[in-house]
Structures are given as C-alpha cells and as structure tokens.
Amino acid sequence: MFEFQVASNRSESIKRITKGLEPYRIYSHEESVKFNTNTLESIFQEYQKKLPSDILSKITYDPGSFNVKAMFYSSFSHADVWHLVGNLLFFYAFSVTVEIALGMMAYIFAFMVIGVGCNVFYSVLSFNDPTALPTLGLSGVVMGMMALKAYLAPGIRIKCFFWFIVLFKRFLIPAWLLAAWYIGWDGYYLFTDTDTGTANINFASHVGGALLGVLIGIIFFNQRRKELVSA
User: Fold this and answer.
1) pTM (two decimals)
2) Secondary element (H or E) of residue 163
3) Which residues form the domain of 217?
C-alpha cells in the first residue's frame, strides 16, 4: 500500500502489478486483471482513510519535483523500524571512518552533497517516468559513505560476520572489495531492470550516492587519501 500511496500515478502502478499476476483458474486473463485491479483499489481506499495523505508528501522526495529541501530531509525519513535500523547499521560501519579521516566540517559537507546529489541522480534517471515513486531513506548517503571510505582508505579491513545455523565465522574484507560488491550489485539491478522482489529499493539513489562519494574524494580529498594510504 505504501507504493500506491506515494506513486506519482497510482493507476499505472496498480496496472503494472496486476498484469504480472497469474490469472485465476475460474477467470480469463482480462477478468483476472479487472478483479485484482478492483480489489487493490478497494483495499487502498480503506488504507488511505487511516493515513492522512499529507504525511508522506512531507517526508518523501518526489523525483519529478527537484525540491532540494525534500532531497535532504527525506534522507532522515524511513518506512519502518527495520528500514531505519538497517540503514543506521551500515551508516555507522562506514561513515565513522570518513568522519575521523576528514574532520567534522568536511564530513558534514560530504554528507550534504551526497544526500542531495543521489536524489538528483534519481530524478535525472526517472525523468518523465510516470511510474517513478517518491523516495525516502538514508541508503543513498550510506552508499556514498561506503564509496568515499573505500576511496580514502582502500586497504582498511572491515570485520564481517557469517552465520549459518550453528556455524559462526568472523573475517576481514578490504574496504574497496566490499564497496565494489555492494555497488556492483546495485548497478546490476539498476541497469538490467530485474524484478526479483526488490521493487521498493531505490537503486538509482544507491548508485548515484556511490558515484558522488568517489567524485567527492577525487575532487576534494585526494591529498588526504595520499596521506592515509602512505601512513
């Protein structure tokens, strides 16, 4: 229901979803689409009665608006607790090193540029797309910090955990390799347009944030990188 609430064109979103569903045995494909469409519309109407429509417009960024203020404060908004916890966990893992390496003021500058820039990237890629959804969350900034950390200190090792039933392992992975893994998969999903249950993930913002992280490092903090690498 969140997707329909924030969709620029709700009818197009519902149409796209219902067309991909398997038809019921007792209905033809057209009848099944019509039934599912009416059902989703009815459920959405009930959902909308319980949620004031202006809440999401205040905490999300609509890619068609190019609203710089919304680009920034949408980064501090999240869909649910697990969305918040997951983003903060990865944000802490990567951004602490960046803040220590650059200092508070340079770190705030990088945060703000990535926060706005990743949403600009999303707006550009989704330009004139009626199905593009408003976005919220810190993940674009997280990816930017991940890329910036990998650029500043590529050799630094990050502690990772592997758990399977009773098997538990800890191992260290170089920052550049971990960043390449996450950014590479996000880029793959973005440019192949595969739908594998990840429809509510803003891959454009992720990739845009990562690209900005690297560009910020190259343009503003190249000397600092040399100091860190040679230390």
Assistant:
1) 0.72
2) strand 157-164
3) 75-230
Q: Measure the N-to-C terminal CA separation of the chain; round to a whole number of Å.
A: 51
Closest CA to 175 of 203, 219, 217: 217
The pLDDT-based confidence of 149 (bands split at 50, 70, 90) is: very high
Evaluate whether residue 195 is within a structural domain.
yes
Average pLDDT in the chain:
81
Q: How far, in Å, CA of 155 to CA of 225, rounded? A: 11
Cα–Cα distance between 56 and 71 in angstroms, integer? 14
Q: State how far Cα 116 lies from the chain centre.
A: 13
Judged on CB neighbours under 10 Å (0-12, 13-18, 19+), 208 is buried
Q: How far apart are CA 160 and CA 151, in angstroms?
A: 19
